[in-house]
Write a structure and sequence with these properties.
By secondary structure, this protein is an alpha/beta fold. Helix content is 36%, strand content 13%. The protein contains 27 helices and 26 strands. A nine-stranded mixed β-sheet has the order 3-1-4-5-8-11-14-13-12, sandwiched between helices.
């Protein structure tokens, strides 16, 4: 039976809602750039509910107006502990702009998809406003935007390297990653300091003690999974130790892109280790310190986070309005966190880590029961998934081997022999959910790693489980179209992406078609592909077009590579170097080059045909015209004997020239890249 929650069932967003709870002051106020949806897929709701469970008074100000008099920032008053800035489930710039830097059709996390409810870089905008209004109140950053910008990073929309977002925002600390464990410990430390009568506390008119920035910085300086900024080397907690990794400074990275690539190798490695080292980076005369992350959450800890009293609904203030992201996930269940795929273009491992954290079957069934009570639920679950649909419960057999592992991926370049990829626990979840009387059908909307299904595990039980899972998935959990992500057809590009050979896609498609025939089903497989990924040339895209044509695909799920902060692929794109090998990598950087690659996805569209023909002539591959369009090149058409080097746009000011970037007017002798290469030869 559906039940309608009361206003008091949500975390308060106004003074009136605080009064319903009898509050005069909140302990923590969260500033969210997303609409407030009380659901475990929305970060502000998760942190708010988690702090509430600790006995704190938590309020949320969703999408405050950053223009004018800033009254939205003051309407709830000063918090007793801190302001938490939760800028949204997506990086604000990815949420707002396409890879071509064009405005997206709608903001997925705003009511009715409105674009005018969040600023660009809300982490910076919100924090500066709060610091202007409440100079001594602590501000703690969280969420994907701050997490992925915790150290020097490349910003695609400004085309330049930027320092840690702590520097630009003037916040007191970042809690990176998913945040539950560090925020709980920060609460405990903060309350202890408030109750201890610390000399730097503030007091209101009634004599109630409140946290200040200086006190919070004392509490957070050695907190795992926290980032802090220090004025001098001497103020770094414990000094710089032998185990610490001191990265190239922000200024060094500006003048030598190779240094930024070297830095990223360490950043990615330490983000994915069970026993990580502290990272320290000099930045503009100050020192950014990134403490090692917490161990992966246990099943009990993860269950606690998902079992909090979410209403699974948008706040009543949005009644009658559509929030696109919520519409996508309202009838879905996340089974696990983390991903050991290590794809070069993905931020999941940098934010959630590569170790899979798994919910219990009981917790999952409790959430399904809650979803069944929602208005408009008709018995169909849109997704039982996670970052990758079929990694539930998977981990290394030998925990000691995992503790010393430095690989960013457990399945690339080869699947680790220590990985236990047993699909039976996931099959049990599917069957338990489908056995519930109020569930008609459960679908899998998350991407499936077919390399885990096709691998020979040298264990008959694991191979049978993978085969059983594949049949169960295709027969009972596909809503007519199964989404998979081969990403490209070129093995050379796929190696840079850290994805398996396209040969596996052929194998999986044959299996998919066979099971459909045997089951009397007419379902489609929908592959995802990326253009303009580092290492990809126009010729690779032409061959992708031919291969997908031969497979009878007219591609729909495609995207032009968008460089997002803190990924291996973005580091390649920004620097021209592979951070794993420091070898030069070709990058299609200009809008014209990116457009020339993307158009090959749509070879079947008449309006793109002439441009595709011209591009094949330009790169000297007119031999592909017949395979793509069914004709041979005219003898009167010019055919180039070899590919011409592409013209590239000027890179950002202050950046060293990467190998395939244009060279400055002063010539090769003064250019640092050529000096580096000459030293290398000597």
């Amino acid at each position: 039976m559906n039940t309608t929650p009361l206003l008091s069932d949500f975390l308060p967003t106004t003074r009136k809602e605080m009064a319903l709870r009898g509050w005069e002051q909140a302990d923590v106020i969260l500033l969210s750039a997303d609409a407030y949806v009380d659901h475990p897929s929305f970060g502000a709701a998760v942190i708010g509910r988690l702090l509430e469970a600790e006995g704190l008074r938590v309020a949320i100000i969703p999408q405050p107006d950053w223009h004018g008099d800033f009254r939205d920032f003051t309407r709830l008053g000063r918090p007793r502990l801190w302001f938490g800035v939760a800028p949204g489930c997506m990086d604000s710039m990815v949420n707002k702009y396409t890879a071509a830097r064009r405005l997206r059709s709608e903001d997925a996390y705003s009511p009715d998809g409105r674009h005018d409810l969040r600023p660009e870089y809300p982490t910076i905008v919100y924090t500066r406003i709060v610091k202007q209004l409440y100079p001594d109140v602590p501000v703690v950053l969280g969420g994907i935007e701050a997490s992925m910008r915790r150290l020097t990073h490349y910003d695609y929309w400004q085309d330049r390297l930027r320092p840690s977002i702590l520097v630009d925002s003037q916040a007191d600390a970042i809690l990176y990653g998913m945040g539950e464990q560090p925020v709980l410990e920060l609460v405990r430390r903060s309350l202890n300091l408030v109750e201890s009568g610390h000399p730097s506390l503030a007091y209101d008119a009634e004599g109630n003690s409140m946290l200040t920035s200086s006190v919070l910085r004392e509490a957070v300086c050695d907190l795992p999974q926290a980032v802090t900024l220090h004025d001098t080397e001497e103020t770094i907690p414990g000094g710089i130790g032998e185990e610490d990794i001191v990265l190239h400074s922000f200024d060094d990275c500006l003048h030598n892109l190779r240094h930024h690539a070297e830095n990223f190798h360490h950043i990615e490695e330490q983000s994915n280790r069970l026993k990580a080292q502290r990272l320290i980076q000099p930045t503009g005369g100050k020192w950014v310190v990134v403490n090692p992350p917490y161990p992966p959450m246990t099943t009990e800890q993860l269950d606690h986070s998902f079992d909090l009293p979410y209403t699974h609904l948008p706040h009543p203030k949005y009644r009658g309005k559509r929030i696109p992201a919520y519409e996508m996930i309202r009838f879905s269940v996340c089974l696990h966190r983390g991903c050991f795929g290590g794809c070069a273009f993905c931020t999941i491992s940098a934010h959630q880590g590569k170790f899979v954290m798994t919910r219990s079957k009981e917790s999952i069934l409790r959430e399904v029961e809650k979803i069944a009570q929602l208005p408009d639920f008709r018995g169909n679950l849109s997704d039982l998934g996670g970052p990758s649909a079929n990694m539930y419960g998977m981990r290394g057999r030998n925990a000691k081997a995992c503790a010393t592992c430095r690989r960013p991926s457990c399945i690339h370049p080869q699947i680790c022999p220590n990985l236990n990829s047993d699909h039976r626990p996931l099959l049990e979840i599917y069957k338990a959910v489908d056995a519930l009387p109020y569930i008609k059908k459960s679908f899998i909307g998350s991407g499936v790693r077919y390399d885990l299904l096709l691998h020979d595990w040298k264990d008959d039980a694991l191979n049978r489980a993978a085969a059983d899972y594949t049949r169960e998935l295709i027969r009972h959990h596909v809503s007519g179209r199964l989404k998979v992500a081969p990403e490209h057809t070129s093995d050379r590009v796929l190696r840079l992406m850290r994805k398996p050979s396209f040969r596996l896609f052929y194998d999986f498609k044959r299996l998919f078609d066979q099971i459909n025939r045997e089951s009397g089903l007419r379902q489609q497989i929908i592959p995802y592909f990326i253009s303009s990924h580092p290492g990809c040339h126009a010729e690779d895209m032409a061959e992708l077009a031919i291969i997908t044509k031969q497979l009878d695909f007219q591609l729909e799920q495609v995207q032009d590579f968008t460089p997002t902060p803190m990924t291996t692929a973005t580091t390649m794109w920004a620097t021209g170097y592979d951070p794993d090998t420091l070898e030069p990598v070709f990058v299609a950087r200009t809008p014209a080059e990116k457009k020339a690659q993307r158009m090959f996805f749509f070879w079947y569209k008449p309006e793109d045909r002439r441009a595709i023909e011209a591009e094949l002539h330009r790169i000297g591959r007119t031999d592909l015209l017949n395979q793509l369009f069914g004709f041979k090149p005219s003898a009167t058409q010019p055919v180039k004997s070899k590919k011409q080097p592409p013209n590239h746009q000027q890179p950002a000011q202050g950046r060293q020239q990467a190998p395939n970037h244009p060279q400055p007017a002063q010539g090769k002798k003064k250019d640092p890249y050529y000096q580096h290469q000459n030293q290398k030869r000597k």
